[in-house]
Amino acid sequence: MKSKSCCWILICIGLMGCQANEDSLSDYIEQVTLQARKEIVPRQPIVPFEAFLYVNTNAREPFDLPREAVIQNQPKAKKDCWQPALRKQKDPLESFALSQLKFKGVMSNGKSTSALIQTPEGKLAYVAKGQYIGINHGKVYEVTKQYLLIKETLPDGLGCWNQRSIKLALK
């Protein structure tokens, strides 16, 4: 019996703690909507697009820069700079980029050492010191057991040429 009375007392205390909010729900909604309203800025008027009919004339193309602007933006070409010697005859390996060629081996006869190069087509060719290889005027400067040293001649875009050394490693 005592447990029943304790249970009823706890229920009554719990119900006393739950008091309903006496504010009107419609007043609360009105207050929230008033706070949420913002001023709406009207849009800019839409300007109608006016199409331009292009008629091909002797004038320049519409997307090309004027000739004066193109000339002004071009770097000045250097007049006195190193130029490679022109050669008429090309070696067969000069038609391939160095990245396409593979250094496959070394052969020596006691006096000279030559390298065995594989083309992208799978053919093998011999290259010795002094021969040209690659599309950038590459000249073989050294043949060792580990690598092939090539000096390439590259244009700089202003009429001059620069040299760089490339090593093809044995694969």
Write the layout of secondary structure elements.
Elements: H1 2-17, H2 25-36, H3 67-73, E1 102-108, E2 113-118, E3 124-128, E4 132-133, E5 138-143, E6 147-155, E7 161-169
Antiparallel strand pairs: 1-2, 2-3, 4-5, 5-6, 6-7
Descriptive overview:
There is one protein chain. The chain starts with a helix and ends with a strand. It is built from three helices and seven strands. The model has no long low-confidence stretch (mean pLDDT 81). The chain has a domain at 98-169: SH3 type barrels (Roll). The protein has helices spanning 2-17, 25-36, 67-73; strands spanning 102-108, 113-118, 124-128, 132-133, 138-143, 147-155, 161-169. The strands form two sheets. A four-stranded antiparallel sheet has the order 4-5-6-7, with no helix packed on it. β2 and β3 (124-128) form a beta hairpin. The chain is of the alpha+beta class and 171 residues long. The radius of gyration is 43 Å and the shape is elongated.
Share of residues in helices: 10-25%
Approximately what portion of the residues adopt beta-strand conformation? 25-35%
Structural class: alpha+beta
| Alpha carbon gap, first and last residue | 97 Å
Q: What would you call the shape?
A: elongated
Q: The biggest beta sheet, please?
A: 4 strands, antiparallel
Number of helices: 3
Radius of gyration (CA) equals 43 Å
For the biggest β-sheet, the strand order reads 4-5-6-7
If you consult CATH, what is the topology of the domain at 98-169? SH3 type barrels
Tally of strands: 7
Q: Can you write the helix and strand succession as a string?
A: HHHEEEEEEE
Give the class-level CATH name of the domain at 98-169: Mainly Beta
Going by CATH, the architecture of the domain at 98-169 would be: Roll
Low-confidence blocks of residues? none
The residue-averaged pLDDT reads: 81
Protein name: Fimbrial protein
